[in-house]
């Protein structure tokens, strides 16, 4: 007898392309999930290669508006659009990405008896910490959700706190993952002596704190080299800071690259530098780096420590001097470098996207099998 497909509706209120870690994650995740039919709601433009993970992709037509005077009207309009789509799609479950952003609010208000699993990504948690209105939105979605998924215990506890410990029993931790089968390590082992070949990737903004890595190089005893791959509002100030510190020969800036190209490049380096100073939901880039055989030197945030499981070198977040010491001490210790290369690869084995997909699929099956009367009401 053929297995009945689980019909899932999900979406992220952004252009349908691999523009962020969350967008890449959902593409990997639903592409790896078997026995489902997934409809994804997003924005145009649509990356035709990216959409292959979904059985159906629908672009939203409601004009997007951020928090402000028109936000409530916007969510009302989005809710009507989502409600009309629900009538056509008739999903068994809704996966509401981002706990409290506009699309998850629309899902919540239009769902009726359809069970919702809310999936936290991090930015909405940071927003809820800063804003009472964002916190109220988070609580509304949490109250209507049969389950709330977070990728780390640290993020789950933060959500638990922001929702007044009212939904503790609905919180579950499902670590994120990457397609480990697509990764590779360099054919020859990296040198275990001499200066480090460092790489840093991602958005160039205040929270990512790339400036910490640049200023740390001015304080090191050894001439480590740093390649920065990414784009953002701070690109030019970061370049100017490197020049002012006399590091133009040791810091190289490269534009944003698609993930496949970044992964191709990663084995050219021996160390990944993670410099984020604020909340980090999981840190997929850390697993990507480790899976390609790189050591990781990271700002000592609780969520990051949980993800790495001790397979990295911490330093004080936002402190160039602390990072400089970590770089030099690591460079001078060949045994430590060899050990970190091995533990990095060992750590990644628990973070395959197939495992994430299986756990989310099992949770969805449990939620949809419960009687409607036992589910939270939107």
Characterization of the model:
- About 40% of the residues lie in helices and about 20% in strands.
- The strands form two sheets. The protein has a seven-stranded parallel sheet with strand order 3-2-1-4-5-6-7, with helices on both faces. It has a six-stranded parallel sheet with strand order 10-9-8-11-12-13, with helices on both faces.
- It folds into two domains: about 190 residues, Rossmann fold (3-Layer(aba) Sandwich), CATH 3.40.50; about 170 residues, Rossmann fold, CATH 3.40.50.
- By secondary structure, it is α/β, with parallel strands linked by helices.
- Helix 10 links the parallel strand 11 and strand 12.
- Helix 1 crosses helix 14, helix 3 packs parallel to helix 5 and helix 4 crosses helix 5.
Structure characteristics:
single chain, alpha/beta, Rossmann fold, 2 domains, seven-stranded parallel sheet, 14 helices, 13 strands, globular
Question: Could you give the topology of this structure?
Answer:
Blueprint: E1 6-16, H1 21-32, E2 36-46, E3 56-59, H2 71-89, E4 93-97, H3 102-110, E5 116-119, H4 123-130, H5 132-144, E6 147-150, H6 153-162, E7 171-173, E8 197-201, H7 210-217, E9 225-229, H8 235-244, E10 251-254, H9 259-265, E11 271-274, H10 284-291, E12 295-299, H11 302-308, E13 313-315, H12 320-331, H13 334-348, H14 353-369
């Amino acid at each position: 007898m053929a297995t009945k497909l689980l019909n899932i509706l999900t979406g992220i209120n952004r252009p349908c392309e691999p523009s962020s870690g969350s967008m890449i994650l959902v593409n990997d995740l639903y592409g790896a999930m078997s026995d489902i039919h997934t409809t994804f709601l997003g924005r145009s433009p649509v990356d035709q290669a990216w959409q292959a993970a979904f059985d159906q992709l629908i672009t939203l037509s409601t004009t997007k508006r951020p928090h402000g005077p028109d936000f409530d009207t916007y969510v009302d309009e989005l809710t009507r659009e989502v409600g009309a789509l629900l009538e056509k799609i008739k999903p068994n479950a809704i996966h509401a990405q981002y706990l409290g952003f506009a699309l998850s609010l629309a899902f919540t208000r239009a769902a009726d008896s359809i069970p919702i699993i809310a999936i936290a990504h991090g930015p909405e948690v940071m927003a809820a910490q800063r804003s009472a209105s964002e916190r109220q939105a988070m609580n509304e979605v949490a109250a209507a959700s049969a389950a709330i998924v977070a990728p780390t215990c640290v993020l789950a506890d933060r959500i638990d706190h922001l929702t007044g410990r009212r939904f503790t029993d609905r919180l579950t931790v499902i670590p994120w993952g990457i397609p480990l089968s697509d990764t590779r390590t360099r054919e020859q082992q990296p040198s275990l002596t001499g200066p480090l070949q460092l790489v840093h990737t991602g958005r160039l903004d205040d929270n990512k704190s790339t400036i910490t890595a640049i200023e740390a190089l001015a304080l090191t005893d050894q001439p480590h080299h740093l390649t920065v791959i990414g784009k953002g509002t701070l690109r030019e100030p970061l370049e100017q800071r490197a020049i002012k510190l006399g590091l133009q020969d040791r810091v190289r800036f490269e534009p944003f690259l698609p993930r496949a190209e970044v992964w191709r490049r990663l084995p050219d380096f021996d160390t990944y530098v993670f410099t984020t100073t604020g909340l980090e939901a999981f840190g997929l880039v850390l697993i990507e780096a480790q899976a390609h055989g790189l050591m990781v030197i990271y700002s000592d945030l609780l969520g990051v420590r949980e993800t790495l499981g001790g397979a990295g070198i911490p330093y004080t977040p936002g402190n160039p001097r602390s990072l400089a010491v970590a770089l030099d001490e690591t460079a001078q210790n060949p045994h430590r470098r060899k050990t970190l290369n091995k533990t990095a690869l060992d750590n990644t084995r628990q973070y395959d996207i197939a495992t994430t997909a299986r756990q989310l699929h099992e949770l969805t099956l449990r939620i949809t099998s419960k009687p409607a009367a036992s589910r939270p009401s939107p």
